[in-house]
């Protein structure tokens, strides 16, 4: 089996490549370092030729809604065309839990990406992950204000990138689902509390402010919006374990 991983140098991409190699499949890596640009389609047809499976784990250069929507719409269009031309039998996309219900910011862009994949002629599978452990730090950094760190009050199941990559690799070697597989962390946490634990580990002072107007990846997110459904695959690595190892 020949699997092309697009976004192979990324956080999830590099781990997915390793997991796929563990499955014994032939992996072709694609990123701009390989002179392939999925935004323009440059070099893509050649890179994807001979692929049985195409895995999209790219990410946009910004969380801003217009920029990320432009990125995911262009890249998915180019990738689907190249996958169809190559005669690929399976197209796997990594998306985010909440793409179907958070109507703004980066989530809107991921919904546009999902819509294109659903309409693909190549059989497809969507893997939706909850926010990675690392995203708590990204949100905290975005939320720094003179009076403290502002984060939206919401529930989440932060997940390990390694467990997300394992789920993506598992989906890629399996049959197309024509549907959504969810992967999530083992425990439900409040973002405000997780942020407080992170700041303590970083030795930073200052209060965490629960702020309903604070954005999450450029979006207005409701308290339950980032929780997966009842059939999600739950990983094992806790946020506390990640904090200890970072
Ligand atoms: N962060 C979260 O909490 C979270 C949660 C759920 C799902 N996700 C999803 O996970 C996916 C992967 O995220 P990540 O953090 O692993 O991303 P990342 O580390 O930023 O990696 C992005 C990858 O995309 C490649 N890429 C970007 N622009 C490209 C272009 N124009 N042409 C070719 N390759 C390009 C990059 O390669 P080069 O720069 O080397 O070209 C890199 O390999 C995203 O789609 C995101 O929506 C994220």
UniProtKB/TrEMBL annotation:
SUPFAM superfamilies: NAD(P)-binding Rossmann-fold domains (SSF51735). This is NAD(P)-binding domain-containing protein. Keywords: NADP. Pfam families: NAD_binding_10. It comes from the Bacteria. PANTHER family: BLL4366 PROTEIN (PTHR42748:SF3), NITROGEN METABOLITE REPRESSION PROTEIN NMRA FAMILY MEMBER (PTHR42748). Residues 7-171 form the NAD(P)-binding domain. InterPro entries: NAD(P)-bd_dom, NAD(P)-bd_dom_sf, NmrA-like_oxidored.
């Amino acid at each position: 089996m020949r699997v092309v991983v697009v976004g192979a140098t990324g956080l999830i991409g590099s781990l997915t490549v390793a997991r796929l190699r563990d499955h014994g499949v032939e992996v072709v890596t694609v990123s701009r370092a390989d002179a392939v640009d999925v935004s323009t389609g440059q070099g893509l047809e050649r890179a994807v030729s001979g692929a049985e499976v195409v895995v999209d784990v790219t990410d946009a250069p910004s969380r801003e809604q217009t920029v990320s929507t432009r990125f995911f719409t262009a890249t998915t269009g180019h990738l689907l065309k190249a996958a169809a031309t190559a005669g690929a039998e399976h197209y796997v996309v990594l998306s985010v839990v909440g793409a179907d219900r958070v109507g703004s910011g980066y989530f809107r862009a991921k919904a546009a990406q999902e819509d294109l994949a659903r309409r693909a002629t190549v059989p497809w599978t969507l893997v939706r992950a909850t926010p990675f452990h690392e995203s708590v730090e990204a949100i905290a950094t975005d939320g720094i204000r003179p009076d403290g760190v502002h984060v939206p009050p919401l529930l989440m199941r932060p997940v390990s990138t390694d467990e997300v990559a394992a789920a993506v690799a598992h989906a890629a070697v399996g049959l197309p689902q024509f549907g959504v597989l969810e992967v999530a962390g083992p425990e439900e946490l409040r973002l405000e509390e997780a942020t407080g634990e992170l700041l303590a580990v970083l030795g930073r002072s200052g209060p965490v402010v629960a702020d309903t107007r604070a954005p999450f990846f450029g979006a207005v997110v409701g308290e339950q919006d980032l929780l997966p459904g009842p059939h999600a695959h739950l990983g094992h690595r806790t946020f506390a374990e990640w904090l200890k190892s970072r």
